[in-house]
Write a structure and sequence with these properties.
There is one protein chain. The protein has 371 residues and is α/β, with parallel strands linked by helices. It has 2 domains: 124 residues, acylaminoacyl peptidase (de novo design (two linked rop proteins), Up-down Bundle), CATH 1.20.1440.110; 247 residues, Alpha/Beta hydrolase fold, catalytic domain (Rossmann fold, 3-Layer(aba) Sandwich). It is 43% helix and 15% strand. Strands 1-2-4-3-5-6-7-8 form an 8-stranded mixed sheet, with helices on both faces. Helix 3 packs antiparallel against helix 4 and helix 4 runs antiparallel to helix 5.
């Protein structure tokens, strides 16, 4: 059941952690243009206690309203307003899809609408972005959005942004793209789902070569004439993206990386070892060995919220024992006092992303920055 109003601590639905987390994400997205607080609070008031379908219905209705405003503004030549409304519509369609079963046709309809809003946003952007298809494994390709740097007359430093196996890339258009743009960076937003439905994530989770997707993305960027291939970095959005940490070791062409550094893999191995008194960690049955323990060739930034799943002291301990601390690895912990302390910095992604992209800028440099 969904309550009709918010509690004082903004927990929208105490018995549905996923719904409450999604609402928190939507409120945080308002800082970056992915929502408005007024619209979010309006929807919270309209949700029905005895109607669990009201979540999908109300967010879809709001998405359609923003989409119509975007199309009207575009027709009248108001590109800034059109872009803003397409971004919000895109995010609201994503919210409408979130609680539905992956096999529910309404979820796929919402995803298609979200992707169409993203494409419309790319056409209105200056310079315009483009939808790209990147061959990966037999029978399946990656899908991405390439957003050129704002003032790049030649080759520009570029950042790859990718999330967990089931995460869709559209969120990056408002969450990460502005930070890249402001620093003169091009951005390639990717997801592993390609043109498949959300239930394809189950198949992805059984693959043991997810890290090879990063190599495919690098092959693609190497062929672009507007990418400075000596200055390509990667950002793994979310702690479920440990495959990026493994890719960093296998991809010497990367100039910098923001990821979990293999900490989660290392934590799992340590847990199993202590639980079953195993001394040889190489035989611990944890999928995907924590390869980051052998060191990375490029600088690595690990960001962590002190209220997240892995506590800061534990992360520091793992880094010290794995000797990652002796490499060019930076651990940044966000505290509750400054916000950004939740898992994946969900309570204040803006603060974390400012730090992340400042770090990237200092290592990649930028070209002709213009907001």
């Amino acid at each position: 059941m969904i309550p009709a109003c918010l509690s004082d601590d903004f927990i929208l639905c105490p018995e549905r952690e996923d719904i409450s987390a999604e609402f928190t994400r939507l409120l945080a997205a308002a800082q970056e243009g992915g929502a408005t607080i007024a619209e979010c609070l309006m929807i919270a008031r309209q949700l029905k206690r005895d109607d669990e379908q009201s979540w999908h219905r109300e967010w879809k209705k709001l998405a359609q309203a923003n989409r119509h405003r975007a199309e009207a503004a575009f027709a009248e030549g108001h590109m800034a307003t059109a872009q803003r409304n397409w971004l919000r519509a895109m995010n609201y369609y994503g919210a409408a899809a979130m609680p539905l079963d992956p096999a529910d046709e309404r979820r796929w309809v919402a995803v298609l609408a979200m992707q169409e809003c993203a494409r419309r946003f790319l056409t209105a952007r200056r310079p315009a972005g483009e939808v790209v298809t990147i061959p990966w494994v037999e029978g399946h390709s990656l899908q991405g959005y390439f957003l050129p740097a704002p003032a790049a007359n030649g080759r520009a430093p570029t950042v790859i942004c990718i999330g967990e196996p089931g995460h869709r890339k559209e969120e990056f258009l408002f969450k990460l793209a502005p930070h890249a743009r402001e620093r003169g960076l091009s951005m390639l937003a990717l997801d592993l789902l390609g043109d498949q439905r959300d239930d394809y994530a189950d198949m992805l989770m059984h693959r043991r070569d997810l890290e090879s997707s990063v190599g495919s993305a690098m092959d693609y960027l190497e062929r672009r004439e507007d990418v400075d291939f000596d200055r390509v970095a990667i950002v793994a959005d979310g702690w479920g993206s440990s495959f990026v940490a493994r890719a960093v070791l296998q991809e010497p062409r990367l100039a910098a990386a923001v990821c979990d550094g293999g900490l989660w893999d290392l934590h799992e191995r340590s847990f199993f070892a202590s639980r079953f008194a195993i001394r040889d960690l190489s035989i611990v049955p944890v999928p995907h060995a924590p390869l980051m323990a052998s060191g990375a060739e490029c600088p690595v930034l690990i960001t962590l919220g002190e209220d997240g799943w892995l506590k800061a002291d534990r992360a520091r301990q793992i880094l010290q024992k794995s000797q990652l601390g002796s490499s060019d690895v930076v651990l940044k912990v966000f505290t509750a006092a400054e916000t950004g302390a939740a898992q994946s910095h969900a309570d204040n992604p803006s603060l974390a992303n400012e730090y992340i992209f400042d770090w990237l800028e200092s290592r990649l440099g930028a070209v002709g920055k213009r907001i």
